[in-house]
Specification:
Largest sheet: 5 strands, parallel
Number of strands: 5
Shape: flat
Strand order of the largest sheet: 2-3-4-1-5
């Protein structure tokens, strides 16, 4: 049946912040589109993609659009053959097949799975195309990392699985929802104390949202730790100091990005090393342009140490 989302169907995510509603709405639209294609969902660890995927499937089951989902972890399924995937596609008949952490698949497994995904009539399979299901892949990396080199995914495989892409926001990229998300986390835990910590903690959390690289998992840790110190009888000032100290000691993540924007690759079979030099200069030029918008704004001292007029000639 054709599915048309209405306002009632949006109730399960209507209270989410706009940026998250957009991602959930797009994913609902992709999974209910009658066409047969692959969907790639990207999100940092702990950003809630698994939770929302389950919620979406639960909602779609009410509309007879999906019956259930079958999940395969890419790191566990990294060295598998066609018999393994034939069994998975059979179990996923009429369901949603989710291949989680797709970057964990070996290149050989990607090649095998590529053949399963090759279709001309909307059905999938190894030799005989007989399986009908929806297929969704997830990854903790961004598009640039997966697309621009074959370190994780073969180019042909990435092209095949990225027909539609949905990115779920993280606190690192958008921390605007951090406080309502923490309140929801506190409620979910069903602690004896119903009083959500406020004051200094609320201010700290809003100011440091982008440091929570673990996303909702970090919120879980903060909530559990706070409740633990409450049970020990500490007052709120002492709890705040101890919780933040514990977080900084145990859950600190250095600032980083999963993009390979600062990586320079040299082809192993290159014979003309003057070309390596030219490629590297062009890499530095493009990096300066990306970082500062215009080459004329790039510093002539560190990190580039080259006049922008020189870089323009590279």
């Amino acid at each position: 049946m054709k599915y048309v989302e209405n306002n009632k169907d949006k109730e399960f995510y209507k209270d989410q912040p706009q940026v998250r509603r957009d991602s959930i709405g797009r994913l609902v639209g992709h999974l209910t589109n009658p066409g047969r294609f692959s969907v790639l969902v990207l999100a940092m660890r702990g950003a809630g993609k698994t939770h929302w995927l389950n919620e979406i499937v639960k909602n779609l089951k009410k509309n007879d659009c999906l019956t259930d989902l079958v999940t395969v972890n890419g790191f566990i399924a990294t060295n598998t053959n066609e018999h393994f995937w034939e069994d998975k596609f059979l179990k996923a008949e009429g369901k949603l097949l989710v291949i989680d952490e797709v970057e964990g698949l070996s290149k050989l497994t990607q090649s095998i799975l590529f053949e399963f995904l090759s279709t001309s009539d909307g059905k999938f399979g190894w030799i005989e195309k007989k399986h009908t299901c929806r297929i969704l892949f997830t990854s903790t990396y961004d598009v640039k990392t997966l697309r621009d080199s074959e370190e994780y995914l073969l180019h042909k495989f990435f092209d095949r699985i990225s027909q539609l892409v949905v990115t779920f926001p993280s606190f690192v990229s958008d921390g605007s929802s951090i406080w309502p998300d923490f309140r929801a986390t506190w409620k979910k835990m069903e602690f004896p104390s119903k009083q959500v910590p406020v004051g200094e903690f609320e201010v700290w959390l809003k100011q440091n949202a982008r440091k929570l690289h673990g996303n909702f998992r970090d919120l879980d840790k903060l909530a559990i730790n706070w409740q633990n110190y409450q049970l020990l009888g500490l007052d709120e000032t002492e709890i705040f100091s101890q919780v933040i100290d514990d977080f900084n000691k145990i859950n600190h993540f250095p600032d980083h990005t999963s993009e390979i924007q600062n990586a320079f690759f040299v082809k192993e079979d290159i014979e003309d090393y003057s070309e390596v030099s030219r490629e590297f200069k062009r890499f530095i030029r493009d990096l300066a342009k990306k970082k500062y918008g215009k080459l004329s704004k790039a510093p002539q001292q560190k990190p580039f140490g080259v006049h922008y007029r020189t870089m323009e000639g590279w």
